[in-house]
Design goal:
Elements lengths: L3 E5 L9 E8 L6 E7 L15 E8 L4 E8 L3 E8 L4 H7 L3 E7 L2 H7 L7 E13 L5 E15 L6
Antiparallel strand pairs: 1-6, 2-3, 2-4, 4-5, 5-6, 7-8, 8-9
């Protein structure tokens, strides 16, 4: 598979696409919800400085198969990851044992923020596992987590 994982340096490096997802600002009690729209429709990334800042953001461009993860850490600032998926997430999971889907209950604040647009109860991620030799397993290959990408929201029962 030729999925591309890239670390972006600045918020302005995030591609100008339409996204599903959310961005949670440090001065907001609820995240800013995106439903197939451009980021700048609600937040001007060029004006974000030291305070307020983005605590976290997860965005997915369905038509581009592009996942963006934004996290802010006190010591290093932003960690922005971009994952370009080669196939639709459902096909990756179905056709390849190195991918798994993870469904997590959504934060109640996210559910409230999304309530106006779409009814959600969970966030969905796809995880890639990479084969690597393990010295504790006689140098046999084992699967280790490589990356995880946000791929959208769900409204279904979460796995127990």
């Amino acid at each position: 598979m030729n999925n591309q994982f890239v670390s972006l340096e600045k918020l302005s490096d995030i591609p100008d696409n339409k996204y599903f997802g959310y961005i949670w600002m440090s001065d907001h009690s609820e995240p800013v919800f995106y439903y197939d729209e451009k980021i700048d429709n609600k937040i001007d990334l060029s004006k974000i400085e030291e305070n307020p800042f983005i605590i976290e953001g997860y965005l997915y461009s369905e038509d581009k198969k592009l996942s963006i993860s934004i996290k802010h850490y006190d010591e290093i600032g932003y960690k922005i990851d971009q994952i370009q998926l080669e196939l639709e997430p459902e096909k990756l999971v179905k056709e390849n044992e190195h991918y798994t889907e993870h469904i997590y209950l959504a934060d109640p604040a996210l559910v409230r923020a999304a309530d106006k647009e779409i009814e959600i109860d969970s966030v969905i991620f796809i995880q890639h596992w990479e084969e690597q030799p393990d010295e504790l397993c006689a140098e046999m290959n084992v699967l280790l987590p490589s990356w995880i990408a946000f791929i959208g929201f769900g409204n279904k029962e979460v796995e127990k």
